[in-house]
Amino acid sequence: MSERERGSRGLLTLAEIREIDLIGYLSELGFEPVKVHSADHWYLSPLRDERTASFKVNRRLNRWYDRGISLGGNLIDFATIFYQCSVGEVIKTFSDYWSFHRPKILLPSTEKAAANCPIQVLYTGQLTSKTLLDYIVSRSVSPDIARQYCRQVNYQMGDRRYFEIGLLNNSGGYELRNSYSKLASSPKDITTINVGALTVSMFEGMFDFLSYKTLMRKMTEQPENYVILNSISLRSRTTFSGKPL
Predict the structure, then answer these.
(1) Going edge to edge, which strands form the sheet with 40-43?
(2) Number of helices (H) and strands (E), helices first, in the chain?
(3) Is the pLDDT of residue 193 over 90?
(4) Where does the chain show beta strands of DSSP type E?
(5) Which residue of 8, 15, 31, 75 sits 20 to 30 Å from the alpha carbon of 47, by its own alpha carbon?
(6) What was the pLDDT predicted at 82?
(7) CB of 69 within 8 A of CB of 47?
(8) How confident is the model at residue 157 (pLDDT cuts 50, 70, 90)?
């Protein structure tokens, strides 16, 4: 199938995917350069373990090269190696994301990796990442609201490290979001915010709640308790003062 045929079916072309900024994409995944020299950005390789940065991205060319394995190329080449998937899966996933601009697991193998490699939260802190804050703004959510209720969560999955927006649940796990992924650390649970109010508002997910708080910030709000389900399957856990909602 040609690039033109793919485009006519509503999918991004290979050329369009290759034009996506590779450095920005790596940042979305939680990888930041160890050093920058002119147009060359040097990273600890996302493709393997190493202590000396030998993975280079040339910003001008928008191409990468890993000296340790003598491989390189464009974003498509990187994604197929990093996630061990086909070019067709890369095209479909990037097309879905850019068409609807909603957070998604980047590639099917990411979801499988999350199931096989438990997420280990390393540390959390205030939301400071420009990449994450830009994503929050792109979802029409106030950064101040996001900072009030969420944390920047740094975690490890397998031998790779990432950082995402995290919402703490009642059991100490986190709902994790960025532009490309939708994950959760164990244990999975609902999130409740109880201020002792007489009313309760319930939301399906993190961004439903943050969007509501953003819309309400310029209004005179009445005190409310909040429940974020984090999964429809957790509806049975919703109680306040021992009473089911």
Answers:
(1) 35-37, 40-43, 55-58, 63-66, 71-73
(2) 9, 15
(3) yes
(4) 35-37, 40-43, 55-58, 63-66, 71-73, 119-125, 151-157, 160-168, 174-177, 182-184, 191-193, 200-203, 225-228, 239-240, 243-244
(5) 15
(6) 85
(7) yes
(8) confident
State both tokens at 142. Answer: 């106030």
How distant is the alpha carbon of residue 33 from its chain centre?
19
Residue by residue, DSSP assigns 134-188 as: HHHHHTT--HHHHHHH-EEEEEEETTEEEEEEEEE-TTS-EEEE-SS-EEEPSSP
Q: How many CB atoms lie within 10 A of CB 55?
A: 25
Confidence of residue 6 (pLDDT cuts 50, 70, 90): very low
Query: Which residues on adjacent β-strands are paired with residue 242?
Result: none
AA letter at 222: Q
Q: What is the pLDDT of residues 92-144, one digit of tens each?
A: 767 765 554 333 333 334 444 555 567 889 889 999 888 889 889 989 999 99
- 151-157/119-125 β-pairing: antiparallel
Q: pLDDT grade, residue 231 (50/70/90)?
A: confident
Pairing status of strand 71-73 against strand 63-66: antiparallel
- Model confidence at 3, in pLDDT bands (50, 70, 90)? very low
pTM: 0.55
User: Quick one: how far is CA 107 from the chain centroid?
Assistant: 12
SS3 73: strand
Q: Which residues contact 228 (CB under 8 A, 6 or more apart)?
A: 167, 175, 190, 191, 192, 202, 203, 204, 205, 206, 208, 209
Q: Which residue is listed with tokens 């068409």?
A: 99
Amino acid at 191: T
> Residue 66: what pLDDT?
95
